[in-house]
């Protein structure tokens, strides 16, 4: 990924992609103390727009605050940087990755005087879990790794180190031929996917776990709003694994995953074993919203 043309915003200026390197003694590389965002921009009839840019930037600042990292830029500067990166790379639609990390001014956990760096990269990214799977649905498997305990990893922070757990869980199930991991919280209740929130639909009611052991996903919030707009009841509550086995429909949400139907859990079909009708409706509503074809939430589209 490092050897390509293009520009990355690095500490306040656009630098050629290949020159965006950092020292091997970078504190974040050793200890994982850093935070990032995953944002998407879509081509709309009125030009390229970043979806819920301000909410993503707000979450990035909250993540930094949780990790007690001092941000050297304002939200306005980082919003502008994300737009600038899309323009510089001539991207009409893209995945955007802002990241905040410490420098190499000291080694050891106790290092002081570390400088905070910020990068913003962007690239073209299609359907995260496969274009076919957006219709067909994916096969997931409960991971042997549990999701974060609330007082161990702080889930409100989209922290680099939290993704050790995600990566272990995902790669375990990928090796076994599944598409994504289902992660349970430390008490055994359904938490989320390795990079997605989860929704379960039974008798027309949507349920999703609260965000104690899951990321406070922006797509999750968006889909909750869209579901309510469509007249569905949405409940945040504890969900058991066997509820997933017996529900009518289930889907994942995420900036990368958008709305991805789940067709199978632990080798059992979910509902009819294909994308359910409510999932299809909400998926279409989501895609139409982010692509600027739904005039209802103009504040959620930041045109570049
Ligand atoms: N959970 C985890 C662990 C994630 O990494 C993501 C992706 N950011 C999500 C949920 C979904 O969050 P969002 O909708 O804000 O992308």
UniProtKB/TrEMBL annotation:
One annotated GO molecular function: L-valine-2-oxoglutarate transaminase activity
Recorded metabolic or biological pathway in which this protein acts: Cofactor biosynthesis; tetrahydrofolate biosynthesis; 4-aminobenzoate from chorismate: step 2/2; Amino-acid biosynthesis; L-isoleucine biosynthesis; L-isoleucine from 2-oxobutanoate: step 4/4; Amino-acid biosynthesis; L-leucine biosynthesis; L-leucine from 3-methyl-2-oxobutanoate: step 4/4; Amino-acid biosynthesis; L-valine biosynthesis; L-valine from pyruvate: step 4/4
Descriptive protein name: Branched-chain-amino-acid aminotransferase
Keyword Amino-acid biosynthesis: yes
GO biological process entries: aspartate biosynthetic process; folic acid biosynthetic process; isoleucine biosynthetic process; L-leucine biosynthetic process; L-valine biosynthetic process
EC number(s) recorded for this UniProt protein: 2.6.1.42
Top EC class, one word: transferase
Family of this protein: Belongs to the class-IV pyridoxal-phosphate-dependent aminotransferase family.
Function: Acts on leucine, isoleucine and valine. Involved in the biosynthesis of p-aminobenzoate (PABA), a precursor of tetrahydrofolate. Converts 4-amino-4-deoxychorismate into 4-aminobenzoate (PABA) and pyruvate.
GO cellular component: cytosol
Pfam families reported in the protein's UniProt record: Aminotran_4
Transcription regulation among keywords: no
Keyword list, A-Z: Amino-acid biosynthesis, Aminotransferase, Branched-chain amino acid biosynthesis, Folate biosynthesis, Pyridoxal phosphate, Transferase
InterPro entries: Aminotrans_IV, Aminotrans_IV_CS, Aminotransferase-like, B_amino_transI, BCAT-like_C, BCAT-like_N, BCAT_family, Class-IV_PLP-Dep_Aminotrnsfr
Cofactor names: pyridoxal 5'-phosphate
Catalytic activity: L-isoleucine + 2-oxoglutarate = (S)-3-methyl-2-oxopentanoate + L-glutamate; L-leucine + 2-oxoglutarate = 4-methyl-2-oxopentanoate + L-glutamate; L-valine + 2-oxoglutarate = 3-methyl-2-oxobutanoate + L-glutamate; 4-amino-4-deoxychorismate = 4-aminobenzoate + pyruvate + H(+)
